[in-house]
Amino acid sequence: HKGFDVDLIRKDFPILDQEVNGHPLVYLDNAATTQKPQAVIDALAAYYQADNSNVHRGAHTLSDRATQAFEDARVVVQKFLNASASEEIIWTRGTTEGINLVAQTYGRANVQAGDNVIISAMEHHSNIVPWQMLCEQSGAELRVIPVNDKGELQFEEFLKLLDDRTKLVSVVHVSNALGSINPVEDIIEAAHKLNAKVLVDGAQAVAHWTIDVQALDCDFYVFSGHKLYGPTGIGALYGKKALLDAMPPYQFGGEMIEQVSFTGTTFNKLPYKYEAGTPNIAGAVGLAAAIHYLESLDRESLIAHEDALLAHAQTRAAEIPEIQLIGTAEKKVSVMSFLIKGAHPHDVGTLLDQQGVAVRTGHHCAMPIMEQYCIPGTVRASFTFYNTIEEVDALFDAINKVKMFLL
Ligand code: PMP
């Protein structure tokens, strides 16, 4: 696609063309998972139709082809993140597994009683609980960077929490619950001055703009394929080679070993050292297809379109006094979390669904930040490039009906 034609783009996503509860589907739950273009569906089918085999077993042609496709996909992810080598890309099931991997390998090997790990108040549970467990296991302290009422991370407070016993800072690039974009560049620079390592949870960032891990200089970067128009069950962990080399393995079994005997085992080189068992080969192939698809689009105009959708939604929201926006950071992506005063978010979600509008309701796996706002959850509409201004209007038409029904 040259330039940007949303009608043309929508044709690439067959799922969008359907009715739900008698209304055209308006899919506004992209922060939970994105839809898959035909190119990804085709790549998955083609892999299973023609190449399916186990990888790195080498003895026959199909296995060679599967291995080639799997390793080519790794290079696609490497280039997508601008990592310096493909061995710095570890396949995972997704963001959650990437964070657990780092907590249980880098964390277990480096974090001790008296040390501290820093996260922020707006983290997804998957970037809270692994560190909480590590701190319980090691006797280290978990410190939390506060977030203001607009949903902005308080950088000055972060600097106060950071000290020479900080071993790791793990922060979300973009909040899934609020849409806030965090100043990860500044966080990384400040942390490195005190020799702390930094993990960036990129689950919500990768779909919106290009990521350059070398420019960021982060130590670890994690994301999930399914939020990037790829399949579920596949994701990647980027880690700096020296760190990955030094860390102990995560899971044990086939693929990750070099030599096994009953007297002891030696481990495989990177990246296989962290990839025990038969991997999600088709998932990797599908993720590479998703990245190719995304890169075939003009990403600048995608961002401009998403920003326009958010701006339009915010204008429409401002016209409705009963709407309370949650998370109004200056820098945010196309996510609108809100409440309709006097209505429970779940009821709003159900009534929107009856009108064909798919949103997420609840705590968005970020209970602590909901607690800070003293709310049980929000209604979240998350827009992406295949959404249209008309769909934003359909959301607000539906909201007006919900108001009549509930208020
Ligand atoms: N972090 C953030 C910011 C997320 O949005 C999500 C998914 N909602 C995750 C982590 C977890 O990702 P996954 O469930 O794909 O492992």
Question: Keywords for this structure?
Answer:
407 residues, alpha/beta, seven-stranded mixed beta sheet, four-stranded antiparallel beta sheet, 40% helix, globular, binds 4'-deoxy-4'-aminopyridoxal-5'-phosphate
Structure, explained:
The protein is of the alpha/beta class and 407 residues long. The protein contains 14 helices and 17 strands. Bound molecules: 4'-deoxy-4'-aminopyridoxal-5'-phosphate. The site of 4'-deoxy-4'-aminopyridoxal-5'-phosphate (PMP) has 13 residues, from helix 4. Catalyzes the removal of elemental sulfur and selenium atoms from L-cysteine, L-cystine, L-selenocysteine, and L-selenocystine to produce L-alanine. It is an enzyme of class 2 (transferase). It holds the Pfam family Aminotran_5.
Low-confidence stretches: none
N-end to C-end Cα span: 44 Å
Strand order of the biggest β-sheet: 4-10-9-8-7-5-6
Strand percent estimate = 15-25%
| Overall helicity | 40-55%
Q: List bound small molecules.
A: 4'-deoxy-4'-aminopyridoxal-5'-phosphate
Number of strands: 17
Number of helical stretches of at least 4 residues: 14
Per the principal axes of the C-alpha atoms, what is the gross shape?
globular
Largest β sheet strand count, sense and barrel closure: 7 strands, mixed
Specify Rg, calculated over alpha carbons. Answer: 22 Å
List the helices and strands and how they pair.
Layout: H1 6-11, E1 19-20, E2 23-24, E3 26-27, H2 38-51, H3 61-81, E4 89-92, H4 95-110, E5 116-120, H5 129-138, E6 141-145, H6 155-161, E7 166-172, H7 184-193, E8 197-201, H8 213-216, E9 220-224, E10 235-239, H9 241-246, E11 257-261, E12 264-267, H10 281-296, H11 299-318, E13 323-326, E14 335-340, H12 345-354, E15 357-358, E16 360-362, H13 367-372, E17 378-382, H14 389-406
Parallel strand pairs: 3-15, 5-6, 5-7, 7-8, 8-9
Antiparallel strand pairs: 1-2, 4-10, 9-10, 11-12, 13-14, 14-17, 16-17
Helix pairs in contact: 2-10, 3-10, 4-5, 11-14, 12-14
Bound molecules: 4'-deoxy-4'-aminopyridoxal-5'-phosphate (PMP).
